[in-house]
Structure formats: structure tokens, C-alpha cells
Amino acid sequence: MSDVTLASHAAVRPARKGVSRGALSRLGLGAGLAWLGLAGATALLPEAGDFERTQDFAAIAGVIGFAIAAATLLGLRSSGLARRLRYGAPWLVALALFFLVWELVTAKYQRLPMPFFPPPQAILEVFLDDGARLADSVWHSLLLLVVGYAVGATLGFVLGVAVGWSVLVGYWAHPILRFVGPLPATAWLPIAFFIFPSSWSASTALIALATAFPVTVLTWSGIASVNKGFYDVARTLGAKQSFLILRVAIPAALPHVFVGLFMGLSGSFAVLVVAEMLGVKSGLGWYLQWAQGWAAYANMYAALIVMAVLCSSLITGLFRLRAYLLSWQKGLVQW
Amino acid sequence: MVAAALRAEESARGVGLDVAHVSHAFDLKGVSLPVLDNVSFRVEPGAFVALLGPSGCGKSTLLRLLAGLDAPSAGTVSVDGAGVQGPDPAHVLVFQDPTLFPWRSVARNVALGLEARGLLKTQRYKVAEALELVGLSAFADALPHQLSGGMAQRVALARALVNEPRLFLMDEPLGKLDALTRITMQAELVKLWQRSGFTALLVTHDVEEALMLAQRLIVFSDRPARVRTTFVVDRPYPRHRDDPHLVALRREVLTLLGVEGGS
Ligand SMILES: Nc1ncnc2c1ncn2[C@@H]1O[C@H](COP(=O)(O)OP(=O)(O)OP(=O)(O)O)[C@@H](O)[C@H]1O
Ligand SMILES: [Mg+2]
Questions:
Q1: pLDDT at residue A57 above 60?
Q2: How far is it between the farthest Cα atoms of chain A?
Q3: Which domains, and CATH codes, for chain B?
Q4: CA B92 to CA B66: how far, in whole Å?
Q5: A235 contact residues in B (CB cutoff 8 A)
Q6: Domain boundary at A116, A145, A161, which?
Q7: For the domain that residue A139 is a member of, what is the CATH number?
Q8: Are residues A172 and A298 in the same domain?
Q9: Rounded to two decimals, what is the model's pTM?
């Protein structure tokens, strides 16, 4: 399935070669200088607006610049560090340039319309001054997402195994899955908010629903596509039904199950944000909504950044779990 | 190293097999494809019988019936006088395709039969013994995709042996081995059979292998398979490839199979 398309990327990862000292010091010092340049430009150029955290932003860029330079010097001795630095240096340079351009077109020369495009120090200001509220939002989002996803993934997995294994369950579940499954979970939102006792439970249910559908379908297809020879082998060796399900069907279907879990997780992010915007008065979705109400654009960007980190970390966690459980597969994709 | 085989208890004796008027057909899109046609033969307890026949004639199908994986369209298969109702852990089939579980290490593949019967805790030592027998102790922790085709076949053999079969059905178990390993494994099989006394049925395309191992050769016709001839190989073990009696018999079998001259 999507494993195949993803797998091709694994082949184009850059080969890990030894790093020559000259190349390392040129790249590392270049990256360090780029960040120091960013720090200098931020601190010294006159500003068009009035930003509280300009000097803090310059200080952070300066610290990063010095850290890169120090790491370069250390890297001349430790080959592990040198390799990582060598690999990351182009990105470090690119990031410094990105921040520099951003800084120049906003705070310094105001080439972008002001309230909509805040400079980096305005976003830093949000993190420093409104961090508590952001952290609280992350906590509430995470709680809602984890509970909903866990419920949905568990139900989807169990249902998928049942549909794939039992003809009777398949007979009844298949038409319902086909009819109801493709409906986007968010379409249930208005109904869910008055069916469920609280908006929190309604949102949990919708996240669970959004997760359960892909997990069910892919678990089912995984179970259905298990090599029948595995069952023959196990049966001749004395396996009972429970062994065939737990030790043969499920492990063999696991690669499919993970595709379903991945799709479910991506889908649950969308439902989470919408549910928080429309119903639950907490979490990152609500924070975005609230920031929009106050025209606090820097807060919105800050929330988006936090959301990206959160979603990316969760996906990374899922891929780690997959790499651990499916380490027997050849050519597994690294996230 | 073959301590498992040495523990030939009473229960590990071979079974008697009775195949009576067995016919089998597959349904291919509404068309019936006859594969076995009135096949009958008996195998005495503890005998070693080789099955030979052209590709696609129905040998693997027959072994599946004997293992209780499928029921014949007509006729009966009985083991020690009782009709075969389904798979039995003492009647083990080594499949033509090794079909190792890719998510399990070699040792855990071999342990499958013990695990399925809840005996892993008490009899784990049998796994190492079986792996040693097929010469793969060093690969206990390898994954199936790290093995060669011949190694995978040997793992499948070890996985079957762990169950201490009383009826041992083998579908070209040595088909992918190189000539040298093959000869070694043939000798091991004979020793194992002599020690543990199971009843053995071996499907093979290699007439020489059949003659080296079996007491009786059953030759099948083209599909649908019928029993064409039976050869009795009345020679003591260990046998030698250049035994004039075997050489003559080999020529005879090959001539029957249509390979004229049989060099
Ligand atoms: N599950 C099945 N459904 C339909 N036809 C089948 C099935 N299994 C086997 N056949 C057919 O039955 C015939 C005999 O197959 P079988 O695998 O028993 O042959 P074989 O004697 O073992 O051949 P080989 O020596 O090549 O392994 C073949 O023509 C095959 O196409
Ligand atoms: Mg076959």
C-alpha cells in the first residue's frame, strides 16, 4: 500500500561519508556566522515599529550562532557530532537567512502589511509572555486528542479484526461501514453537540469516529490479505482459533493496521481543531479562535507553530512505535 | 545433537496410513478440475515411502488431504484405522514453500508448534536441538528475509521436527538445497527416521533421492493423478549412490517416467 510509495524515499537518503576537517569547519563556521549576522542585524538596525523583545530575539540568535561555532570546534574531534553538523549545516544556514529576510521585511523595513505579518520577535513575545496560556491549551488539546484517538483506534482495531475474521460480523458491519464511514466526522458536529452530555464528550466521540473508520478498514483489509499458507502451517502444528487470530492474523496484518493508524491520526487532528473552535472552549483550536477575535496575529502564528510541533511529534511517536513493532520488515520508512 | 530423536517414546512410533479410493477435484470458476482419481495405497507403520509424479499432477494436493487440511471429494483417508477429521499436531506437513512467518525470528518460527500447543515453557530445549539438526544454530536470531531459500527450507524442516511427528509428510523439503547440503540432509533424514520411527511420506522430483531414502516408490500418472506403479526398494541403510541395484532401479524408474535411457 502506501508503504511502497513511502519506501522509495528511503533509498535516496544521502550516503553517510566521513567528513573532512576543511569541509566541516567551512560549513560549521558559515552557519555560525549566519546566525551571528542575524543577531547583529536584529540588534543594530533601526526598527519601524515598537517591539519589546527585539533584543531578546537578537540574543537568542547570537547564542545559537556561538553554539554552532563551538560545536564546530568540538566536532573537529568527535566524528559523531561532526557528521550531524555536516548534515544539518545547510538547514542551519537556510533558517538563519529565512529569519533574516523575515526580520527585514517586517520589523526593519515594513514591506509586509503590519498587523497581519508580525516579526519574529513578536512571536517570541507571545511565547515568553503568554506561554502559560499556550501550555494550558496544549495540555487540553493533547488530553482530548489522546483520549479520542485511543478510543477510536482500539474500537477500530477490534472491529477491523472482527469484520476480517467473522463472516457474520462482516455481513452486518460491511454495509454500515460503507454507508457511514466515508462521511467526514466533522459533519456530525452539530448533532453530536446536542446528543452528548458535554461538548468535551461530543468532541472525544468525533475524534474517535474519525480515527476508527480508517483503522477499521485497513485492519480488515490487512486481515483479509493474510497469506492463507500461514494458517495452514499453524493449523498443522496444532494451533487453535485464538492462536490463529492473535499470533497469525494480527501480526501478519500489522503493516496495514499502521497505515490505518497513521491515516486516523492525521484525520483526528482536523477534527480536534474544528471541535475546539466550535465547541470545547479550550485547547489550541480555541486559542486560535480567541486570538483571531482580538486580532492578535502573533498569537495565531505562535499557536500554529505549537500545533505543528505537537502534530509532528505525535506522528513521529507513531512511526517510532511502528519501526519497533515492524522491525522485521525490509526497507521500513524512517519518518 | 539429536537427543530429541533419541527420546523415541512409545507414543512417537509411526502410524499406519490407509488411503482408500480418494478422488479430489477443484472448482475453477464453475468448471470442475479433477486432480486425484481413485487413489488407493497403504503405508505400514514406520515405513518410508516416496511419491513421484509429473509436475502439477496432484502430489501436494494429496499431502494436504493426508494432513487433514482439506477433505477429499470422495474416498477416505485413515490413520491407524480412524478417519482423518482435521489437522493433528502429530501429523506434520513440511510444505513445498517454506512459508516462514516473516515477523518471527528463526528460533521463534521453529518454536511455533510448541507455542501453539502451550508447551513452550517446558520444552523450549527442542527448538535448539532441531536447529542444530538442520545446521542453523548460528541463525537462531535471524529473520526469515535474511535467509537463503535453502536455509528457509531447513528452518521449515526444523519447525516440523519440533512437533515430533508420528506421520511426517514432506513436500520436496530439500528441493532448494545445493547438492552437498542435500546429501547431508538426506543422510540426516534417514538417521532421524530410523531413530524415531515415524512414518514418512516424501514427495520429490529427484529419483535418486527417492531411491536413497524410501523403502517404496509410488509413481503417479499425469493429472488427474492415479497410482501408476509401485517400486519396492529392498536395500539396507545407509545406502550408496553407486549401489548397482539402485542404479538399475533408477534407470527403470526414469524409463517409466519417459526419460529414455535414464543416464
Ligand atoms: N487451491 C486450488 N484451487 C484450484 N486448483 C488447484 C488448487 N491447488 C492445486 N490446484 C490444481 O491442482 C493441480 C495439482 O496441484 P498440486 O499442487 O497438487 O501439484 P503437484 O503434483 O504438487 O505439482 P508440483 O510437483 O509442481 O508441486 C494443479 O493443476 C493445480 O493447478
Ligand atoms: Mg507440489
A1: yes
A2: 81
A3: 14-101+167-262 (3.40.50.300)
A4: 10
A5: 69, 86-87
A6: A116
A7: 1.10.3720.10
A8: yes
A9: 0.84
pLDDT at A332: 62
Closest CB to A238: pick one of B64, B95, B116.
B116
Q: Are residues A48 and A161 in the same domain?
A: no
Q: Distance between CA atoms of A79 and A86, rounded to whole angstroms?
A: 10
ipTM above 0.85, yes or no: yes
Chain A contacts to B (CB-CB under 8 A): 227, 229-230, 232-240, 243, 247-248, 251-252, 254, 326, 328-330
State which residues have CB under 5 angstroms from ligand 2, the bound ion.
Answer: B 60, 96
Contacts of A252 in chain B (CB under 8 A): 101, 103
Atom of ligand 1 nearest to the CA of B53: 21
Among the candidates A116, A140, A169, a domain finishes at A116
User: pLDDT tier at A169 (50, 70, 90 boundaries)?
Assistant: very high
**Residue B7 cell numbers, joined:** 527420546
Q: The domain containing residue A49 runs over which residues?
A: 3-116
Whether the predicted pLDDT of A6 surpasses 70:
no
Q: Are residues A161 and A81 in the same domain?
A: no
Q: What is the CA radius of gyration of chain B?
A: 18
Residue contact A236–B101, C-beta within 8 A: no
Distance CA A2, CA A21 (A): 40
How many Cβ atoms are within 10 Å of A35's Cβ, its own excluded?
25
